[in-house]
């Protein structure tokens, strides 16, 4: 009996290894995302991991090389959390997850999305800090994180994002002071309201995370 | 009290009297035979096992009975495996001498009668393998002489009666495969003579009772597949006779008590699938009799401290699915003495190089180190493991070449190395592996040719080389692999034609050659691949017509030949009537779409886009009721959309764009409830947009661009509440833009340009706050003022209202459009002063509005004084020139330098943005975005670097620079 048991373990191990017929990293990353999300309205029903690539899935847009460039899941009634695998979508330009019920921390791996132009995560329940790794998003123009539960200070590293044109973190639980360097020189105050922020940074006078 | 007893006695007496009288006519007049006949009458006996149980024969001659030497009492009943059903009669209690009752492996139902408790002489009760239900009767505890109780594999439920602790003579207790719940009774510890305890596959919870240490003679304890929780009692260490301990698949927690190391007779220990944690105690090494140790799927951490060198009898060690770290310890095996046959360490966090001491485990047959962090090369001494049949090293970081000595591992059956960083060639010596059945090398960096010798491995059933850099052609001798099931060579650099001998791999079910550079035509020998189920050849350089004999492949399920240069008819692919997916996108197939395609009633994905298919869409497609992805775009199809397609209720993607289809848009489209994407663009459809489309509430993308659609945009468009993209560009639509469009709250791309739309822009458009990609209303006949509500479109990146008849001033609210990258208000009747921040847009954004002024157009003061705009611009240049000439030489030099810096910087603009868009980018967008040259075109505007200009102004608030910037702008734009 004992040996039978063991044999069955081994067989199941072998069965778990099947030929790589569906191997595609971006599709796998999106499928991993799906497994973290609850999707009561079946917005992700078409996400079939058996397909060669995710380019015919709804809410996913690819370029001519079958790389995912847009993920449009705004207003989709989804909840759950994000995971590190989203950082594998290296060609992503638009990450649109706004107005859902997604919680947990924003994965620092999103900083790997070097081609990202727009990240719209407003209107969710994200908590924790804004990842410092966002400073690596050199193509980023639009970053809207408003109406979440983000805390901590605004990472100073974001002042190096030369292309950043829209930055909205209003209605969160951020603390410290507001950066004034780089693109932050031109963001309106509305982008920062309803936090625990202490006004613009006064360099050398108070630490940037004063009051955190 | 006394009267009750008397009453009972009387009843008993009457009952006995009755039974004696009832059988008095028979040869045997004993109460025993009577109750046996009562027992028989409760049973259903389809095979006649009880046929000779008749009053005419002496009961001791009845089948299955054992009598006492004097033939007066029944001592044993054995009716095991007699296909009996029915229930167990409570009358059996009359057999007071009964020692053995074996009714196992029948189909008995009902409960275990509590009267069995009266069988005081019973030693063995075997009821396992029936469908008995209910609880174990408490009275079972009265059977003081019971030695064997096996009642498992039934539907028994409830708690295990604590009275079981009274059965002090019990040696075997089998309660497995029932539905018992509650906890293991602590009285079990009273069973001093218990040897065998089987509680597997119930729903027992609670702790393992500490008292179990009382079962001193216990040899086999199996309680796997329950819900036991808490710690493993350390007191179990005293169970010195224990040989088998199986607690797998419970919820036990804590660490393994070191005392388990004292169970010196233990041969089998499984704690698989619990929540145990901490280090694996090195005391387990004392278990020198142990043959099988399975601690997999727990939370054990730390280094492996177990040594086969000490547990000399170990055959199987399974530690997979924990969080073990470090490497396999050196001296793990001692050469010559090791009996270890199976070593499974998969799914841990083990690291380091391949432990060379493993090569001392000479008896190893199966080695699984998959899903760890091992690195470095594979040792050349691997062939010392001469008994190895399965080598599984996938999902690690092994690097270097595959050593050629692998060819000496003559027993090897499966070689699983996928997802590593193995480089170099596949050694030709691989061809010596006559037993090799499975070789998975996918997701590595291997290169060179696929050696011809591989085709000597005639046992091969599965080859998967996906995602390497293999070059050259598929070996011409591949036809020798008569057992091959799976050939997966996708994503390599293979070239040359397919060798005709591949057609002789007649067992082939899956052939995946996609993403290579394979060329030529398909060999006619493919007609022999009659078991072929899935064939994917996409992204190669195949060409020519398909061999007509492919029609013989009747088992094809999935075909993907997309992105090649196949030509001719697609008919040869339609021999199978079990196709589920056919993708021939981007080839040169021609001729009509054969209606034979519709014989595959389960077809769900049909993609024939980008070919030269002509003729009409066959009306027979209406029978494809499972059709989900229907893409005939970019062909030369003509005629109307057949009304039979309205039966294809499962269609989600309906793509007929870029054909020459005619007729009207069918209203039945509104009945396709699953529709998510509808693209009929670039055809010749005419007539109205059917209002019924509004029923497709799941529609995400609707594109009807470049047809001849006329009439109004239906109000019902507002019912499409899921809509993301709406493109009605370039039609003959007229009337007003329906204000119901405000209900399309999820829309992020809206194009209504190049129509004959009239009236004013509905202010409700300002509610579409998710608009992002574009709002394009250009080239219509829209009039009235630009609604100030458009200033709410905070995410909008492009706004085109050009070539209309819009009047009034540009609302100041548009300055709130901070995301706006491109703005075109040109060629309208706008007037007044532009908001000052609009100077960041190029001149061309505003041209053709005679009464509009302010930067980047001429300043409003000048436009008021001058009629001719061209002249006023000349005047500006003159003024600037005058300023420059009256400045000092130093100021001039400074200006020049700063402008050079600015101009260079400006070249590095954000033109790289805006790639998103749609799958097939329209030609016109190619120059609009992503083109650093930023070529000008009269219809569209210039890509500008407005992302930076304002902030630069802010940081360098020098009026000199501002003036010179104006100058550069004007001289740069030769339009003026």
Automatic annotation (TrEMBL), chain A:
Residues 1-22 form the signal peptide. Gene3D superfamilies: Ribonuclease Inhibitor. Residues 83-171 form the Disease resistance R13L4/SHOC-2-like LRR domain. Pfam families: LRR_14, LRRNT_2. It comes from the Eukaryota. PANTHER family: SOMATIC EMBRYOGENESIS RECEPTOR KINASE 1. This is Leucine-rich repeat-containing N-terminal plant-type domain-containing protein. It comes from Salix dunnii.
From TrEMBL, chain B:
The keyword Lyase does not apply. It comes from the Eukaryota. GO terms for cellular component: plasma membrane. Residues 31-68 form the Leucine-rich repeat-containing N-terminal plant-type domain. Residues 163-343 form the Disease resistance R13L4/SHOC-2-like LRR domain. The keyword Cytoplasm does not apply. It is found in: Cell membrane. Its main location: membrane. Keywords: Cell membrane, Glycoprotein, Leucine-rich repeat, Membrane, Receptor, Repeat, Signal, Transmembrane, Transmembrane helix. Pfam families: LRR_1 (PF00560), LRR_14 (PF23598), LRRNT_2 (PF08263). Residues 1-22 form the signal peptide. It is a single-pass type I membrane protein. The chain crosses the membrane at residues 875-899. PROSITE patterns: LRR. PANTHER family: LRR RECEPTOR-LIKE SERINE_THREONINE-PROTEIN KINASE FLS2, UNNAMED PRODUCT. Belongs to the RLP family. This is Leucine-rich repeat-containing N-terminal plant-type domain-containing protein. It comes from Salix dunnii. The lineage of its organism: Eukaryota, Viridiplantae, Streptophyta, Embryophyta, Tracheophyta.
């Amino acid at each position: 009996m004992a040996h039978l048991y063991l044999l069955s373990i081994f067989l199941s191990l072998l069965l778990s290894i099947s030929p790589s017929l569906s191997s595609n990293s971006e599709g796998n990353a999106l499928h991993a995302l799906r497994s973290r999300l609850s999707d009561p309205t079946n917005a992700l029903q078409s996400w079939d991991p058996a397909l060669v690539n995710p380019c015919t899935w709804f809410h996913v847009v690819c370029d001519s090389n079958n790389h995912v460039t847009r993920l449009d899941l705004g207003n989709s009634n989804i909840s759950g959390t994000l995971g590190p695998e989203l950082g594998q979508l290296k060609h992503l330009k638009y990450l649109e997850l706004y107005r859902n019920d997604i919680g947990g921390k924003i994965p620092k791996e999103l900083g790997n999305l070097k081609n990202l132009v727009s990240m719209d995560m407003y209107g969710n329940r994200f908590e924790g800090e804004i990842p410092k790794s966002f400073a690596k998003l050199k193509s980023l123009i639009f970053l809207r994180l408003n109406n979440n539960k983000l805390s901590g200070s605004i990472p100073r590293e974001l002042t190096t994002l030369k292309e950043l044109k829209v930055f909205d973190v209003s209605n969160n639980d951020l603390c410290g002071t507001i950066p004034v360097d780089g693109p932050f020189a031109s963001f309106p105050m509305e982008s920062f309201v309803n936090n625990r922020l202490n006004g613009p940074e006064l360099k050398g006078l108070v630490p940037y995370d004063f009051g955190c | 009290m006394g009267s009750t007893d008397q009453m009972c006695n009387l009843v008993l007496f009457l009952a006995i009297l009755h039974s004696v009288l009832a059988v008095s006519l028979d040869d045997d007049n004993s109460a025993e035979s009577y109750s046996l006949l009562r027992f028989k009458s409760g049973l259903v006996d389809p095979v006649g096992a009880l046929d000779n149980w008749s009053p005419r024969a002496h009961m001791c001659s009845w089948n299955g009975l054992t009598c006492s030497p004097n033939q007066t009492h029944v001592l044993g009943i054995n009716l095991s495996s007699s296909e009996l059903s029915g229930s167990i009669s409570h009358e059996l209690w009359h057999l007071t001498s009964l020692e053995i009752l074996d009714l196992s492996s029948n189909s008995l139902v009902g409960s275990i009668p509590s009267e069995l408790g009266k069988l005081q002489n019973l030693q063995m009760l075997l009821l396992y393998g029936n469908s008995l239900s209910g609880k174990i009767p408490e009275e079972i505890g009265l059977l003081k002489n019971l030695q064997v109780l096996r009642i498992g594999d039934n539907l028994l439920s409830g708690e295990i009666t604590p009275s079981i602790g009274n059965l002090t003579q019990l040696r075997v207790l089998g309660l497995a495969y029932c539905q018992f719940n509650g906890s293991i009774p602590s009285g079990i510890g009273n069973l001093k003579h218990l040897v065998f305890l089987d509680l597997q596959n119930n729903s027992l919870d609670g702790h393992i009772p500490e008292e179990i240490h009382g079962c001193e003679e216990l040899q086999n304890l199996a309680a796997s597949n329950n819900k036991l929780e808490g710690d493993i009692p350390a007191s179990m260490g005293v169970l010195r006779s224990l040989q088998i301990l199986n607690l797998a698949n419970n919820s036990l927690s804590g660490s393994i008590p070191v005392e388990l190391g004292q169970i010196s007779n233990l041969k089998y220990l499984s704690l698989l699938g619990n929540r145990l944690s901490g280090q694996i105690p090195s005391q387990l090494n004392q278990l020198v009799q142990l043959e099988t140790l399975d601690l997999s799927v727990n939370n054990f951490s730390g280094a492996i401290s177990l040594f086969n060198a000490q547990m000399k009898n170990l055959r199987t060690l399974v530690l997979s699915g924990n969080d073990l770290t470090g490497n396999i310890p050196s001296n793990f095996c001692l050469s010559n003495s090791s009996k270890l046959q199976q070593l499974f360490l998969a799914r841990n966090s083990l690291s380091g190089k391949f432990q060379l001491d493993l090569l001392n485990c000479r008896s190893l047959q199966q080695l699984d180190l998959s899903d760890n962090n091992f690195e470095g090369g594979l040792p050349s001494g691997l062939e010392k493991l001469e008994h190895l049949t399965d080598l599984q090293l996938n999902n690690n970081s092994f690097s270097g070449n595959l050593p050629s000595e692998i060819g000496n591992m003559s027993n090897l059956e499966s070689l699983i190395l996928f997802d590593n960083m193995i480089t170099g060639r596949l050694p030709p010596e691989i061809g010596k592996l006559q037993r090799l059945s499975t070789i998975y090398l996918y997701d590595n960096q291997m290169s060179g040719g696929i050696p011809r010798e591989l085709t000597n491995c005639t046992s091969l059933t599965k080859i998967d080389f996906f995602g390497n850099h293999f070059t050259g052609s598929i070996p011409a001798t591949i036809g020798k692999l008569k057992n091959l099931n799976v050939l997966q060579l996708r994503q390599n650099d293979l070239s040359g034609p397919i060798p005709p001998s591949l057609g002789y791999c007649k067992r082939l079910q899956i052939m995946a050659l996609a993403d290579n550079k394979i060329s030529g035509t398909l060999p006619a020998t493919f007609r022999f691949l009659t078991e072929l189920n899935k064939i994917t050849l996409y992204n190669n350089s195949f060409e020519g017509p398909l061999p007509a004999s492919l029609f013989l492949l009747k088992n094809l399920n999935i075909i993907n030949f997309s992105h090649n240069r196949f030509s001719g008819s697609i008919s040869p692919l339609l021999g199978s009537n079990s196709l589920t997916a056919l993708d021939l996108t981007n080839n040169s197939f021609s001729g009509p779409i054969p209606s034979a395609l519709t014989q595959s009633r389960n077809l769900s994905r049909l993609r024939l886009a980008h070919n030269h298919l002509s003729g009409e869409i066959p009306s027979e497609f209406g029978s494809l009721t499972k059709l989900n992805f229907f893409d005939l775009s970019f062909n030369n199809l003509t005629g109307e959309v057949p009304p039979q397609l309205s039966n294809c209720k499962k269609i989600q993607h309906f793509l007929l764009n870029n054909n020459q289809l005619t007729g009207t848009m069918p209203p039945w489209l509104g009945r396709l409830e699953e529709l998510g994407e509808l693209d009929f663009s670039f055809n010749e459809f005419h007539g109205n947009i059917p209002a019924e489309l509004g029923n497709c509430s799941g529609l995400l993308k609707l594109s009807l661009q470049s047809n001849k659609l006329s009439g109004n945009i239906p109000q019902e468009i507002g019912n499409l509440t899921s809509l993301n993209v709406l493109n009605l560009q370039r039609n003959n639509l007229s009337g007003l833009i329906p204000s119901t469009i405000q209900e399309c709250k999820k829309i992020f791309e809206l194009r209504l340009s190049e129509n004959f739309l009239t009236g004013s822009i509905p202010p409700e458009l300002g509610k579409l706050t998710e608009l992002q990609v574009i709002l394009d209303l250009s080239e219509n006949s829209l009039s009235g003022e630009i609604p100030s509500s458009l200033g709410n479109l905070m995410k909008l990146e492009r706004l085109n209202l050009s070539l209309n008849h819009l009047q009034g001033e540009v609302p100041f609210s548009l300055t709130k459009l901070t995301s706006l990258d491109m703005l075109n208000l040109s060629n309208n009747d706008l007037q007044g002063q532009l908001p000052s921040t609009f100077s960041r847009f190029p001149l061309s954004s505003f041209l053709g509005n005679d009464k509009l002024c302010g930067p980047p157009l001429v300043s409003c003061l000048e436009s008021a004084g001058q009629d001719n705009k061209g002249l006023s611009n000349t005047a500006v240049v003159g003024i600037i020139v005058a300023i420059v000439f009256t400045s000092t030489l130093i100021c001039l030099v400074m200006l020049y330098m700063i402008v050079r810096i600015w101009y260079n910087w400006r070249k590095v603009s954000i033109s790289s943005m805006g790639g998103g868009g749609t799958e097939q980018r329209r030609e016109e967008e190619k120059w609009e975005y992503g083109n650093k040259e930023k070529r000008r075109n009269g219809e569209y505007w210039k890509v500008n670097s407005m992302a930076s200009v304002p902030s630069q102004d802010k940081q360098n608030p020098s009026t000199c620079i501002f003036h010179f910037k104006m100058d550069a702008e004007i001289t740069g734009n030769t339009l003026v």
